[in-house]
Amino acid sequence: MNSFQFLVALTASFGGLLFGYEVGVMNVVLVMDAFRIFFKFHSWNGDALDENGKDTTDKAKMMYRKLDEASNKATLEGVITSSFVLGALCGALMATCLGEKYGRQRTIMIGACIFTCGAIIQGLSARTWVMIAIGRLITGLSIGCNGVLCPTYISEVAPAKIRGTLSSCYQLMTTFGIIVAAIINSIVWYYTNSSPEGLGIKRGDIWAEVANFEWRFALLFQVIPGLGLAILMSFLPKSPRWLCSKDRDEEAVEVLTKLNAASTSDELVQSELKAIQEDVAATRAAGSSSFGELFSPVIRRRTFITFLMQLFQQWTGINVIMYYQSQIYDEIGFSKFMSTVVLPIINNFVNFISTFPGMWGIEKLGRKTLLVVGALMMMVFHISTWACSTQTQNGKMWQYLAVASVFLFVFSFAWTWGPVPWVYQAEVFPLRVRVKGSAVGTVSNFLNNWIIAFVGPALMKAWSTKTFLLFAAACLFAWVYSQFYVIECKGLSIDEMDAKMAGKA
């Protein structure tokens, strides 16, 4: 791999940064007092809490606002959070058409511009949940579109021997976006929610707004990475495979020359071009593709594997933790500062660092091995989180053991089930149905993500930490699926994959 190939893959992976920031920012925004009061999740009559979250009337000990939860808080929280994922679901469907008509590179640029527009609508939202939900739906359109096309684009410009490693850069940048959002917005939360004005002073209107800088800044900050991705993508080449599919072979040669840092007559460039041309010719000989082809005897197993892999990825419970982790830590018994600032940053850092073993293991150990091992580890740590959380009244040690189990679950996810589904769906389908097949996986991801994001607050309110047992059961099913249904595709050519998927090898 040369530096240009790495730069291309890294820049395309910035689509994951947008995804990560969107996930990370909502965890903090949802616990910002101004946001809660503005959208009427909570009211505030002027009462105060001390640094440990206990009621106090002592002016010297007053630290935080004491908010009273509205009856529809869980529903509104679920609607606003999940509207982003609903948009992502639609965006994944849009990607199949736009990606084939306009190309991967140009469509990713369009997606980044759509993301920027949605971020502006969110940050400038009026006092109604409808406007911010629409803004999040629009940013979701971008994330869904890029979730299909970024890994596909990377897989089409990366050398075959490190294709999996570079494709997992998308997941790495997603985790990096989450930690960036956590650090920036936790600092904002601390300086705007600690010792605010008006503590201990009775308010005539309990629904009156307080200063809204904190959450508007957090959401408008998304404009920077959105515009950054659009600008950076304008300097990247189009996919050589897409160019050949549009009879633009000369341009494809130029791109392959740049990617391989070689001349147009170089043997490597010519061999790659020939392989692409043969693939395109075979695709055309078979006619235009349709979604129905994904269920043909040769391809349907890949379709079901991809759909179920993304389904189980979401039902591991990862995004309940990422969207609502501050509220989970609060439920376990930690202080506001620990729940909102310290623990989320540590957890998101664990998530980021743990992606690196996955980038190594995906090529050395294989896709299937990571899925099998990861499912078992996640099941164990979900059970231990629940078990420890039931003992928190017996001392601080149990609180720390519970949160350590959460961190270990995130570690288990980030190096296995985090990157593998995205890599798998980007490489397992033939070229003629690659975008459509990848879209099926991404639609499955965002459909189940939407369900989880919507019901998550209600589940936590009704079941508290027993919710982790539900996710432990899902991880058990994920292990069965991985062990007995998934086919390893590490290092296989499309022909070898066809044989294996059809049960002929």
Characterize this entry briefly:
Helices cover 72% and strands 2% of the residues. It is mostly helical and 505 residues long.
List keywords for this structure.
505 residues, mainly alpha, two-stranded antiparallel sheet, three-stranded antiparallel beta sheet, 23 helices
Q: What can you see in these coordinates?
A:
The chain has 505 residues and is an all-alpha fold. The protein is built from 23 helices and five strands. Strands 3-2-4 form a three-stranded antiparallel β-sheet, with no helix packed on it. The protein has a two-stranded antiparallel sheet with strand order 1-5. Helix 6 (129-157) crosses helix 20 and helix 14 packs antiparallel against helix 20. The longest helix is centred in the N-terminal third of the chain and has 30 residues, at 73-102.
